[in-house]
Amino acid sequence: MSNNSDLVQIRPLGHTKLFQPIKVGTHTLPQRIAFAPSTRQRGTSDYYPTDLQLPYYKARGQYPGTLVITEATYVSPGGAGRANVPGIWNDKQAAGWKKITDAIREEKSYSSVQLWHLGRTADPAQLKHDGQPFIAPSPVYMDKDSEEQAKKVGNELRAATKEELEDLINNVYPNGARKALEAGFDYVELHSAHGYFLDQFLNQGTNHRTDEYGGSVENRARLLLAIIDKLIPIVGANRLAVRLSPWATFQLKEFDGEEVHAYILKELQKRADAGNELAYISLVEPRVSASYDVAAHDQKGSNAFAEKIWKGKFVKAGNYTYDAPKFETLLHDLDNDRTLIAFSRFFTSNPDLVYRLKNGVALQHYDRPTFYTHDNYGYNTWNQHDGNKQFDKEVEQKRVGKVLA
Ligand SMILES: Cc1cc2nc3c(=O)[nH]c(=O)nc-3n(C[C@H](O)[C@H](O)[C@H](O)COP(=O)(O)O)c2cc1C
Question: pTM for this structure?
Answer without folding.
Answer: 0.97
